[in-house]
Amino acid sequence: MATHLTSFKIVRPVFVWRRLAVLLAGLLLVACHSGKTEAQLDKTTALNTATLVVVSRPTPVYAIVPGTVISLKRAEISSRLTGYVRRVDVQAGDAVRAGQHLLSIDSSDVTGNLQQAQAGVNQAQAVYDEADTNYKRYTTLFPQGAVSRMQLDAAQRQYMTAKAQLQAAQAALRMANAEIGYADVAAPFAGVVVEKMVDPGDLTTPGKPLLVVEDEHTLEVRSYVPDDVYAALQVGQKIPFSAGGDSYAGILKSVVAAADPQTHTHLIRLSIPAASSLTSGLYVRVHVPIGEQPAVRIPATALTERAGIIGVFVVNAESRTQFRLVRAGDAEDGQVQIQSGLADGERIVLHPDARIDNGTLIAVADGHAQ
């Protein structure tokens, strides 16, 4: 029996890997060469973009003090009755009209007082009618000698006493009727319920606050400033303040010359712009101007963030950019105050975009701002 041998071509793995390595090295070399060329173009081609020469100018210096938005019309609603709250028709945050019903108090005791007062008036009226009739009769009979002077004087005293008792009974009835009206509590003016302190079933007493209503259309800012800041203030001047990231321009309405003996601060009151969305109770930061000092302010568009750091691109003497960390302060009207990191005469890029990096060449005409 013959044996057949089949021949196979053996491919060496080492040879395949060598060919793959040569191919990858070539691709990597092409990629590196392409990146290098692009970087070199960025570094050697002047980029036309707007720049600005930094100049320090006198800038107001502010003392920042805390303040609170206060409503000028604020009422703590209470009742003059003692009784249990029967019904509450509003919740905190509800808008109410002037005269709108807010809550009711059980008036059982007041109703009893009213009935008693009415009975007192009826009784006093009957006594008065009798005394009046007797006095008139005795006045007619006295000239005829039918009654004595003593009897006439006695009738007159009874008449005057009955009249006074009737007037007292009528006053008690009016008071009882007025107390009935206190059982239903209404809003004294249009506004918003900012606080609700009772629920049905609670016992109320005269003078105990039940609800707080404020008019949110008549607001002002109140703050306290130390002596040195108070000395620089003038009624009528513009004083900015901020709340929740928004800025407002207030007018100084009044200052209290007498300082608080505990804190040694003075109360100031600022008007609030009519179109503001502020509400009472908000915390605000009042920026009281106390003088001026040189400061650098740049457009907010010049600030950029690189690797989580806020800074600007400064153009050096060779017209190349360098990223520099700055500390930004207050912003107003699109301008940001730079507290540190920039000096007079330095040139910065106004609109840094992704094309600009450290070492980018900038086209600067005659070294002036563009």
Model description:
Helix content is 28%, strand content 36%. It has 370 residues and is of the alpha+beta class. A hairpin with a 2-residue loop joins strand 19 and strand 20 (335-340). It is rod-shaped, with a radius of gyration of 45 Å.
The H/E string reads: HEEEEEEHHEEEEEHEEEEEEEEEE
- Rg result: 45 Å
Name of the CATH superfamily of the domain at 63-72 and 216-291:
Efflux pump adaptor protein, beta barrel domain
- Our estimate of the beta-strand percent is 35-45%
**CATH architecture grouping of the domain at 63-72 and 216-291:** Beta Barrel
Name of the top-level CATH class of the domain at 63-72 and 216-291 = Mainly Beta
Question: Whole-Å distance between the termini?
Answer: 99 Å
Portion of residues within helices: 25-40%
The main sheet comes to: 6 strands, antiparallel, barrel
Structural classification: alpha+beta
Mean pLDDT: 83
CATH T-level topology of the domain at 63-72 and 216-291: Elongation Factor Tu (Ef-tu), domain 3
How many beta strands in the DSSP annotation?
A: 21
Unreliable stretches covering 5 or more consecutive residues: 1-41, 366-370
User: In which order are the strands of the major sheet placed?
Assistant: 2-11-14-13-12-15
Shape: rod-shaped
Brief synopsis:
It contains four helices and 21 strands. The chain has helices at 13-44, 108-141, 149-181, 227-230, and strands at 51-53, 56-71, 74-78, 83-88, 95-96, 101-105, 184-186, 191-196, 203-204, 209-214, 219-226, 238-243, 246-255, 265-271, 283-299, 304-306, 309-315, 321-325, 327-332, 335-340, 347-349.
